[in-house]
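Hi C.,

You asked whether I'd gotten around to modeling the 436-residue construct. I have! Everything is below, sequence then structure, no commentary in between.
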Amino acid sequence: MNEPLLLIATVGGAPEPVVASLLYWRPVRAIFVVSPETRDSVAERIVPAARSSGLSDFDSGRYDLHEVNNAQDYTALVDDLRLLDDRIAAWQRDHPGAKIIADFTGGTKAMSASLALIAGHWQCIVSYVGGTERTKDGVGIVVSGKEQIVHFQNPADALGLSALDTARELLRLHSFSAAAAILDRVLHRVTSPSRKAELSAVSTLAQALAQWDRFEHQGALTNLGKLQRRQHDLEAALGVEAARNVLSACRQLQVHLEKLLEHKDCHSQTTISRSLILDLLANAGRRIEECRWDDATARLYRAIEATAQLHLADLGIATEAVPLERIPTPLRDEFAPRATGETAKFGLQEAWRLLNELRPETAKAFFGSGLGEKEKSPLTSRNQSILAHGFAPVSEKVTRALWTAALAIAQVKENELPKSPCAGIPPTSPSSTSEP
């Protein structure tokens, strides 16, 4: 074979399987996984046999030994073989496109199982040595000289197993873009058409929610609509109950997005509405669950401002151009010097002060939450944050105070907010529980 090829092979008491693998694959380099009992057999039996059988240039400079301490301890073996990850990554970096072969024929059953498990993390070919003839009437070991190499694409790649598990967990944790990226990267390596369809359905879900997270509401709605035709694929990928829960929640999210998108201006841009405020608050809630306090605070600030804008819109007032004649005195005297012509532009605090003059009942929650007090308001911390005008991160305490205030100001309960459909996906592995 002309391409650079790395062989990782477990070594047991019989040298023939490893020799057969060396002669078939003819690697540029090999890593032999050995135990204290088998390490000497590489130099004493395997390499001489390979050299005398046609691999004459294979010498001690072409292989390394990876010794494990206990060939019977499966847990310890898995931990030992994890150390190969860095070496595999270095090989792939130095030899782009080169093949990696994981042969788990030799060694104890625990060694073989460990290599098969760890190889699931690598983009490799899985190989083992079978045979055309066995002892004990066909049920014993392979007869020497009758070895036959069996190889296939790594099942983790062919079926996208680890990628799907990772994507499921990322979806549960609101990391929608990361889930979509992982699935898209593995889809081209999946060989089974049905499996590709299953992963593609989960990818569509991830893309829709990533768009929702980025406020790309129309794109999210379009992709959510596609999902309703992919029920069987989602059931195969996520499980029947989880998929049905996800699709039911997706339909609820579609209803929310449809309401939000009903409100557009003459340029087809989304305009202020209660649905948009709910969307901002839900987005902030997801950032809080991720402990991303600055990101959550930025969204809460906008939701509080948008609530004031919605109330003023009911009065025919837009905060970007408030007519001076609509501003009661003494506020008018304060803003007139800053006006552009006959209108003034209002920020968050000014909008709530104006509402307090025009509709005091709508501003009661804002001022009752202490947000109008410049020195003590949690909004001051937001203004001094690194994402606004300062250099300090927002604290969890400030974010949670703003969260409580924003819900009260918008007159919203948490259970009214649009939910991520992925809350219905169970964890990839059950949490451990203590014995009673």
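If it helps when you're writing up: Residues 274-416 form one domain.

Thanks,
B.
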